[in-house]
Amino acid sequence: MPAASLLLALAACRATVFLTIDTGNMEPAEAMAAILRKHDVKATFFLANEKTKRGDASLDASWAPFWKQLAAEGHAFGTHTWRHWYVRGDAPGGKVSYVPWGAKQGESLDREAFCAELRKPEEAFKAMTGRGFDGLWRAPGGKTTPRAIEFAKSCGYTHVGWSPAGFSGDELPSDKFPGDALLARQLRDIRNGDVLLWHLGIWSRQEPMWPKLDELIAGLKDKGFCFARIPEGAAWKR
């Protein structure tokens, strides 16, 4: 971008938000990446090895072209754990309780095992793209504990949550939370420094929310918002 155009763009930017996107069923992944390309927006992606609608997993080698393109385009990346289980509490013996969604029991992970769970997505991603993550992680469901945070920091990962106004609602039932209403709420409530949360496909939602990402980005830009990656923001809300 020419210097004059860059200065005009910065002058028009009244606030900054941070778009983050977690893996999901991956059905709209290519379309969502195209929306980002259309608006020249860089996001921060959080990756777990999740089951996809095409029958593989999101960090299988079959997804290498997709992740390589996103890496080349300059997006940021963090770990969303390997198995996408949930941190349920600090367990006896200096461990963290890690449980599958909907289950009552899972595993108790010590520091080494917890760090391995965080590092495995990064190792798979690096094998596909040649680059690692950006020292970030997001716990599934945003559920953390003091020990989980401490374990993650010890192996180089800072936790990133999201802002209430930035929650897209793409995980909510569409009969009770229609997309137009969710979009209107975000455009009304999002403020400077907010972290926005979206997913690359949600299994349970009947009316997909992801097409509204196009309208959200356009609407926020019209209001003077700029988009930045998490590593570029000192003021993003944890």
UniProtKB/TrEMBL annotation:
GO annotation, cellular component aspect: membrane
InterPro entries: Glyco_hydro/deAcase_b/a-brl, NODB_dom, Polysacc_deacetylase_ArnD
Signal peptide range: 1-17
Segments forming domain NodB homology: 15-228
Keyword Calcium: no
GO BP, sorted A to Z: carbohydrate metabolic process
Keywords recorded for this protein, A-Z: Hydrolase, Metal-binding, Signal
Superkingdom, taxonomy of origin: Bacteria
Record flagged with keyword 4Fe-4S: no
Pfam family, one: Polysacc_deac_1
PROSITE patterns for this protein: NODB (PS51677)
GO molecular function: hydrolase activity, acting on carbon-nitrogen (but not peptide) bonds; metal ion binding
PANTHER family for this protein: CHITIN DEACETYLASE 1-RELATED, GLYCOSYL TRANSFERASE-RELATED
UniProt protein name: NodB homology domain-containing protein
